[in-house]
């Protein structure tokens, strides 16, 4: 395996962070041969959200003298390093580590270790939008856990299958997976893991608009987090409690939750949680009329989403920003953001992911048509000679297109185009559009330029 190990070593060394927890580093390190103690310290640091510290300690354990770790412990070390990279967005380095761990686990016949590796690989595929591939890996990991008799691993996989079902909009199936996972964790007294499942259940109830049940699930999860001092899961719960408050239009509570949670997320270096919280703060600012602040929060969230390659969050941010811009009658920018959101959601659908993406796309297309209609009306408000012209052209053109056999999807975008055929007139001064007498040659040249102006306004919009 020298090639695989070398591949992992180069990747791991190139991305190891120097920002280590000073309190941990100030203590005397274990003896070089005490790899098991290093592994235990790394796992504690990972649970506490100190990923750079955990990665450093995992690597120390791995580089301890030969024979210091059992094969299962080597797999645990490599899988732990992979998890820290995955959470930091370094998925290529994570996959390198997992590749080595899986070879070791399979060659030594360690089914539980193999299942743990497959589970993290599935998480990475899920984050990249490859839901079918992720589900297949989860099923394989579940089989490994059952063969090893590892109930904790099986419960973890059930939880992750619930996440896949949630993303696909299969809420009843998701709740069944979550309940199975929660019951096992409770029997095993795995309180930290139960926090995460309760958080997932709260998210499903929020999607179903079952507010009271969502609140109870989040409340129980928060109490358990405090009991086991799990700051990482608490950050995720805070994100979802804020989303619940927004769904209930309780913007004061949402802002309060986000502000407190943002401080915790930044102290943990949790960019995923920070991005979601900033998106929520943007929505709160928009809904309460603070448009400049909303744009600033969306921009900060987008920077984090782009850095992590989080396509779903990028799409959601484009949609939320479009809503903000539409309220300011900034129609061209609104359409640009709707176009971006539509393209990103369509890309997710093209990858056989997100069964509920059709619902999201339909919502965007409905908004798209409303915005375009308003944009057309804003153009015609300047031109006394063409009131209702864009709508009449769209109706007549669509009637012809329908007779020619255009399907519903093509007809929708045909109507959008027809409504915007005169969009370039927005650059023509109203006094020229409404001049009662003959136009001068200069005025007529400007009037005739509106199709080219329209092309420029719509450039980059599919």
What does this entry look like structurally?
The chain is mainly alpha-helical and 462 residues long. It contains 24 helices and no strands. It has helices at 2-15, 22-26, 35-47, 51-62, 71-87, 91-107, 111-127, 131-148, 151-167, 171-187, 191-207, 211-228, 231-247, 251-268, 271-287, 291-308, 311-327, 331-350, 357-380, 389-403, 408-419, 430-433, 441-448, 450-457. The protein starts with a helix and ends in a 5-residue tail after the last helix. Residues 1-33 and 350-355 have low confidence and may be disordered.
Q: What's the structural blueprint in terms of helices and strands?
A:
Layout: H1 2-15, H2 22-26, H3 35-47, H4 51-62, H5 71-87, H6 91-107, H7 111-127, H8 131-148, H9 151-167, H10 171-187, H11 191-207, H12 211-228, H13 231-247, H14 251-268, H15 271-287, H16 291-308, H17 311-327, H18 331-350, H19 357-380, H20 389-403, H21 408-419, H22 430-433, H23 441-448, H24 450-457
Helix pairs in contact: 1-6, 3-4, 3-5, 4-5, 5-6, 5-7, 6-7, 7-8, 7-9, 8-9, 9-10, 9-11, 10-11, 11-12, 11-13, 12-13, 13-14, 13-15, 14-15, 15-16, 15-17, 16-17, 17-18, 18-19, 19-21, 20-21
Number of strands: 0
Taking the alpha carbons of the first and last residues, their distance comes to 48 Å
In sequence order, what are the helices and strands, one letter per element? HHHHHHHHHHHHHHHHHHHHHHHH
Rg measurement, Å: 27 Å
The general outline is: elongated
Q: What can be said about the biggest beta sheet?
A: none
* Count of DSSP H/I helices: 24
Helix content: over 70%
Give the amount of beta strand, in percent: under 5%
Structural class: mainly alpha
Mean pLDDT over the residues? 83
**In terms of quaternary structure, what is this?**
single chain
Give the uncertain stretches in residue-range form. 1-33, 350-355
């Amino acid at each position: 395996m020298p090639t695989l190990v070398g591949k992992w070593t180069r990747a791991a060394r190139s991305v190891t962070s120097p920002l280590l927890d000073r309190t941990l580093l100030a203590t005397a390190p274990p003896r070089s041969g005490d790899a098991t103690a290093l592994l235990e310290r790394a796992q504690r640091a990972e649970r506490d959200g100190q990923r750079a510290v955990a990665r450093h300690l995992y690597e120390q354990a791995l580089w301890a003298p030969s024979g210091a770790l059992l094969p299962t412990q080597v797999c645990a070390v490599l899988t732990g390093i992979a998890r820290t990279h995955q959470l930091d967005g370094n998925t290529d380095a994570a996959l390198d580590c997992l590749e080595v761990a899986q070879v070791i686990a399979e060659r030594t016949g360690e089914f539980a270790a193999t299942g743990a590796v497959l589970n993290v690989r599935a998480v990475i595929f899920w984050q990249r939008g490859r839901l079918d591939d992720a589900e297949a890996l989860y099923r394989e990991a579940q089989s490994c856990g059952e063969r090893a008799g590892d109930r904790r691993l099986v419960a973890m996989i059930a939880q992750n299958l619930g996440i896949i079902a949630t993303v696909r909009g299969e809420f009843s199936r998701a709740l069944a997976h979550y309940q199975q996972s929660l019951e096992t964790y409770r029997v095993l007294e795995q309180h930290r893991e139960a926090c995460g499942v309760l958080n997932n259940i709260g998210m499903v109830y929020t999607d179903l608009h079952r507010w009271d049940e969502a609140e109870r699930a989040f409340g129980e999860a928060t109490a358990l987090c405090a009991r086991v001092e799990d700051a990482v899961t608490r950050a995720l719960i805070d994100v979802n409690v804020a989303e619940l408050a927004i769904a209930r239009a309780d913007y004061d509570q949402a802002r309060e939750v986000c502000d407190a949670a943002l401080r915790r997320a930044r102290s943990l270096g949790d960019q995923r949680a920070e991005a979601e919280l900033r998106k929520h703060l943007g929505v709160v600012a928009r809904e309460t009329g603070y448009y400049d602040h909303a744009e600033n929060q969306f921009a900060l969230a987008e920077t984090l989403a782009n850095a992590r390659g989080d396509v779903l969050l990028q799409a959601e941010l484009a949609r939320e920003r479009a809503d903000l811009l539409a309220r300011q009658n900034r129609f061209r920018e609104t359409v640009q953001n709707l176009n971006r959101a539509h393209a990103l959601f369509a890309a997710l659908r093209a990858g056989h992911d997100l069964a509920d993406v059709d619902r999201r796309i339909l919502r965007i297309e409905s908004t798209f048509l409303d915005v375009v209609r308003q944009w057309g009306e804003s153009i015609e408000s300047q031109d006394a000679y063409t009131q209702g012209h864009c709508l009449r052209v769209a109706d007549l053109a669509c009637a012809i297109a329908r007779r020619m056999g255009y399907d519903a999807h093509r007809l929708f975008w045909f109507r959008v185009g027809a409504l915007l055929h005169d969009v370039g007139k927005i650059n023509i001064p109203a006094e020229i559009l409404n001049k009662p007498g003959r136009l001068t040659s200069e005025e007529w040249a400007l009037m005739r330029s509106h199709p080219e102006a329209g092309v420029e306004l719509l450039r980059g919009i599919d």
